[in-house]
Amino acid sequence: QVQLVESGGGLMQAGGSLRLSCAASGTILSFFKAAWYRQAPGKQRELVASLTNGGTTDYADSVKDRFTISRDSAKNTVYLQMNSLKPEDTALYYCNQALFADRGAQNYWGQGTQVTVSS
After folding, report:
1. What is the DSSP letter of 53?
2. Which candidate in 8, 36, 62, 111 could, as Cys together with 48 as Cys, close a disulfide (CB 3.0–4.6 Å)?
């Protein structure tokens, strides 16, 4: 059974940096795609960054040049490096990974990690 465990969130001042991690555990046979989403109070969940197994990345305009998504295949872990944080980055961040595991190809979600940026 595959599980995604997120970590790295917290409280940071504007201009600071945080790195979120999303570790996948279980019998993982292939990686297809990963993405980070975020949801602020009263707002819809939005896609922040994505990464394909071919290495293609994509970012929301609001985080371009500040956030970087990456993956360590040996650790089955996806990261989101967040620099130059702004108060508007405050949200609950969710990791999503499309994996081929013992139950076939499925989409998996982490439990969410809170990021709060103070001005």
Report:
1. T
2. 36
